[in-house]
Amino acid sequence: MMRRQLELFFTALGFFTRLPVPAWVPWSPERLNHAARYFPLVGWVVGGLGAASYLAFALVLPPALAVLLSMAVTLRATGAFHEDGWADACDGLGGGWDKAQVLAIMKDSRIGTYGTVGLVMMLAAKAVALVEIAAGGGGTAVAVALVTAHALSRFAATGLIHALDYVREDELSKAKPLARRLTGGELALAAGFGLAPLLLLAPLEAAAAVLGAAAVTAWAARVFVRRLGGYTGDCLGAAQQGAELACYLGILVAWNFT
Questions:
Q1: Cβ atoms within 10 A of the Cβ of 80, count?
Q2: Which residue ranges make up each domain of the chain?
Q3: Which of 20, 143, 161, 180 gives a 20 to 30 Å CA spacing to 173?
């Protein structure tokens, strides 16, 4: 039983990141089908890498540079997987008129104006937010924010897998094996991993982070259903990016009330 769960976790880690996984872990669409429960736990790993690298860089560099370099570490660890989804979603939803056109644009590997502007704005907003967190709370606050936001935002994306329908009919789609609603137990496990890091925050910070991530996810779900009838893999990446930024902003907003 434990080995099975380890296999599912490493399957999720191997799918959502570029990090190496043990050679003994088998891969199959069926395992990936059940690996979404560990998506938030993958956020612990990515956020932890970002936090550790920030603390290391901050020993010898100014906070702003330490933030940028720690973001580069997380981007390298994930292969910019979710940022790519954000850019594709910006292109598709910004430039497409109907469902077929939106899906075709999102499938195109080239990046357009909407995607370029959206990606630059997203990365800049996250960097500025983390620099402000560093200025107000120091390195520990940045480290906690990174772990919390990466885990919670991935739970937000997992929630969309559970709540919405997958709309691509292309069997070669990378996200197709994930297109299965989670069972109650799987969703509860994902929620536990996604919400647990909130214990590292002050109550008001945690509440603001959750409210921000929930608001962005609900809005994203509404847009995805209205425009597409459900979600694609790019939509999940876009939701993760939006929820991650909302967590950072929530923490900053909470500080204004303390």
A1: 17
A2: 2-255
A3: 20
